[in-house]
UniProtKB/TrEMBL annotation:
<keyword id="KW-0804">Transcription</keyword>
<dbReference type="InterPro" id="IPR000847">
    <property type="entry name" value="LysR_HTH_N"/>
</dbReference>
<dbReference type="InterPro" id="IPR005119">
    <property type="entry name" value="LysR_subst-bd"/>
</dbReference>
<protein>
    <submittedName>
        <fullName>LysR substrate-binding domain-containing protein</fullName>
    </submittedName>
</protein>
<dbReference type="InterPro" id="IPR058163">
    <property type="entry name" value="LysR-type_TF_proteobact-type"/>
</dbReference>
<dbReference type="InterPro" id="IPR036390">
    <property type="entry name" value="WH_DNA-bd_sf"/>
</dbReference>
<dbReference type="Pfam" id="PF03466">
    <property type="entry name" value="LysR_substrate"/>
</dbReference>
<feature type="domain" description="HTH lysR-type">
    <location>
        <begin position="5"/>
        <end position="62"/>
    </location>
</feature>
<keyword id="KW-0238">DNA-binding</keyword>
<comment type="similarity">
    <text>Belongs to the LysR transcriptional regulatory family.</text>
</comment>
<keyword id="KW-0805">Transcription regulation</keyword>
<dbReference type="InterPro" id="IPR036388">
    <property type="entry name" value="WH-like_DNA-bd_sf"/>
</dbReference>
<dbReference type="Pfam" id="PF00126">
    <property type="entry name" value="HTH_1"/>
</dbReference>
Length: 328
C-alpha cells in the first residue's frame, strides 16, 4: 500500500527547489543541511523517482520534480491564505470601513459614539475617501457608498434614501423674498451652489421643474457636500442638497427649504457594499445591523420634518435612468 509524502518532506523539497541549493534551504528552515538531504532522499525513495539533477553544488529539477514543485507551491499558497484568514479572525475585534467623506463627517461620525458605547472592545478604523475599495487588493471589510447601487460582483444593500430639495439660510431666503414672492422668480435669480459629485444636479432639477435661469450670479461648485452645505449656512446661496446630510441644520432652523411647495425628491442613495463572503463575518453583520437601525430612525425623523414643513415627497426610484437620459 503506497504512502503519501510527509508534510516535512514536501516543505523541505519546496525550499530546496526554490533556492536551488540544500545549504540555502537549510538556512531558511533553520535546520542542518544533512537533515534536508535526508528528507529529500526519503521523499525520492517513497515516490520512486529522482526529483533533482545534481551538478556539483547546483541542483535542478527533473521533469517529475518540476511537476511536484508546481503542485507544492500551489498547495502551500492555499495553506498560507487559510492561515492569514484564520489569523485575521483571531485578532481583536477590528473592523475597517471606507465611507464617502461628507457622509462620514455629517452623518456617520456623530452617531459612532452610540456604537462605541455598546461595543467598547472593538478596534474601528474608518477611511473617509471618495474612492471605492478594491476588495481584492485592500484590507477593507466593507464600504458605505453613495451612488447607484450597481457595483458588479459585490453585495449591495440599500441603507438610506436621499431627500433632495433646495435649501438655504433664513437670511438668504428673506433677501430673495424682498425681491419677489414668486417661487419661479426666486429660483431664477438665486445664486446656486453646486455639489458637483451629487447624483441630482441643479440643471437636472431645474429642467424637471421647467425653470429657466436668468441670473447673472457666478457659479459656486464644490466637490464635497459638506462644503456646499456650509456655503448655504453662510448665506452665500441656495444649495440643492440632501436632507440626510443637512438634517441637523434643518431641524435647528439654521437652514430652511427655499420653496417647500416644490417638494423633495426621494431616491435610494447610500449602500453597504462588500464581497458576499464578508457577509459571513460577525463583525460585518453587527456593524451592518447597527447602521441599518440608525438609518431607519434617521429616515423617520426626515419624514416627520418634511411633513411638519409641508414639503411633499416625490419618490423617484428611476431617477438614475432619468439622469442618464437627460445628460445624453
Amino acid at each position: 500500500m503506497s504512502r503519501d509524502p510527509s508534510l516535512n518532506g514536501m516543505i523541505y523539497f519546496e525550499a530546496v527547489a526554490r533556492n536551488g541549493r540544500v545549504a540555502r534551504a537549510a538556512e531558511e528552515l533553520n535546520v542542518s543541511p544533512s537533515a534536508v538531504s535526508q528528507q529529500i532522499k526519503l521523499l525520492e525513495e517513497l515516490l520512486g523517482i529522482s526529483l533533482f539533477r545534481r551538478d556539483k553544488r547546483q541542483l535542478s529539477l527533473t521533469l517529475e520534480g518540476e511537476q511536484l514543485y508546481m503542485a507544492a507551491t500551489s498547495a502551500f499558497g492555499i495553506l498560507r491564505n487559510a492561515r492569514q484568514s484564520i489569523s485575521r479572525h483571531r485578532e481583536s475585534h477590528q473592523l475597517i470601513l471606507r465611507v464617502s467623506p461628507s457622509f462620514a463627517v455629517r452623518w456617520l461620525g456623530p452617531k459612532l459614539a452610540d456604537f462605541i458605547r455598546h461595543n467598547p472592545e472593538w478596534d474601528l478604523r474608518i477611511d473617509a475617501s471618495p474612492d471605492p475599495s478594491n476588495f481584492d487588493r485592500e484590507v477593507v471589510d466593507l464600504d458605505i457608498r453613495y451612488g447607484h447601487g450597481n457595483w458588479a460582483g459585490l453585495h449591495c444593500e440599500e441603507i438610506l434614501s436621499d431627500y433632495v430639495l433646495p435649501i438655504c439660510s433664513p437670511e438668504y431666503r428673506d433677501r430673495l423674498r424682498k425681491v419677489s414672492n414668486s417661487d419661479l422668480e426666486v429660483l431664477q435669480n438665486a445664486r446656486l451652489v453646486d455639489s458637483i459629485k451629487a447624483i441630482l444636479q441643479w440643471d437636472n432639477w431645474l429642467a424637471k421643474h421647467r425653470i429657466t435661469r436668468n441670473s447673472n450670479s457666478s457659479a459656486l461648485r464644490f466637490d464635497r457636500s459638506s462644503m456646499a452645505i456650509q456655503q448655504a449656512i453662510n448665506s452665500v446661496g441656495v444649495v440643492l442638497e440632501s436632507t440626510t446630510l443637512a438634517y441637523d441644520e434643518l431641524a435647528s432652523g439654521t437652514l430652511v427649504p427655499l420653496v417647500p411647495e416644490l417638494g423633495a425628491i426621494r431616491f435610494p442613495a447610500y449602500w453597504i457594499v462588500c464581497p458576499s463572503r464578508h457577509q459571513s463575518r460577525k463583525l460585518v453583520q453587527v456593524f451592518s445591523n447597527w447602521v441599518i437601525q440608525q438609518a431607519e430612525y434617521h429616515e423617520e425623523k426626515i419624514n416627520r420634518f418634511l411633513e411638519e414643513k409641508q414639503v411633499p415627497i416625490y419618490d423617484d426610484p428611476d431617477i438614475f435612468d432619468y439622469l442618464a437620459t437627460s445628460r445624453q
